[in-house]
Amino acid sequence: MKDNTVYVIQEIPGTQTGNPKINIMGASKYGELKFLLPELSQIIFSPGPLIFKLRKLLKDFTAVRIIFLGDLFHSEQNNEWYLFESWVKKQNLEIILIEGNHDIIPKFKYNSIGVKILENLTEDNFYFTHLPIHKKDYFVFCGHIHPGVKLKGSGLQQMKMPCFFKSKNQLILPAFGGFTGLHILSPTKGVKVYITTGKEVMEMS
Q: Is 36 or 104 the better-scoring residue by pLDDT?
């Protein structure tokens, strides 16, 4: 039997109140990884695929600014940071990180590569923050809980999908990264749900 083995299981998503989530970024430093996951699970340990997605989006859309809504890195500075740093230095746009409860890399590290760190951002009638809140007279963009919905087929089929969860004055965005887990939400009257497959976004009827 080998020592220093890390067993990775399906993580439990955090909650709106900020209860901690399991995160395996950098878990390899503790030993050999073994995965106990449902079949066809996809795992991303590096921001490389995420940066690839960003590059593609920036080719498809004209942007002058990127706003990350928190929890960009869950671990201390590591190899993934240097990949991110290299990507940032090649950009000609403003990059803002709204600080999340899991962002532990010091602010001066972000500032040194030109990334601005804010607790929140107000612009016109829009309010950008990490935790889902309601703010009078503003439409709130937020993240944190990794929203998802459960789809049921005519038989016994079930599927969980990430989604954009929109209420009257709030939009909770899905996690941009992989292996983040989902916090399943139940739509109520007046709420619109937009399922994302990673390639397209569809309104759930």
A: 104
pTM of the model: 0.74
Residue 81: phi and psi, rounded to 5, are: -60, -45
Beta bridge partners of 183: 147
**Two structure tokens written together for 155:** 């038989």
Cβ atoms 143, 100 nearer than 8 A: yes
pLDDT over 80 (residue 172) = yes
Residue written as token pair 């990949």: 83
The two three-digit tokens of residue 159, written as one number: 């599927």
Under a CB-based contact definition with an 8 Å cutoff, are residues 164 and 143 in contact? Answer: no
Q: Indicate the helix (H) or strand (E) that contains 96.
A: strand 94-98
pLDDT (average), residues 113-128: 96
Write the CA distances from 63 to 36, 87, 168, integer angstroms: 40, 16, 26
Q: Please, which residues have CB within 8 angstroms of residue 18's CB and are 6 or more apart in sequence?
A: 101, 131, 144
Percent of the chain with pLDDT over 70: 71
Contacts of residue 92, defined as CB under 8 A and 6 or more positions apart, other chains included, come to none
**What's the CA gap between 128 and 68, in Å, rounded?**
9
For 2, the enclosing helix (H) or strand (E) is none
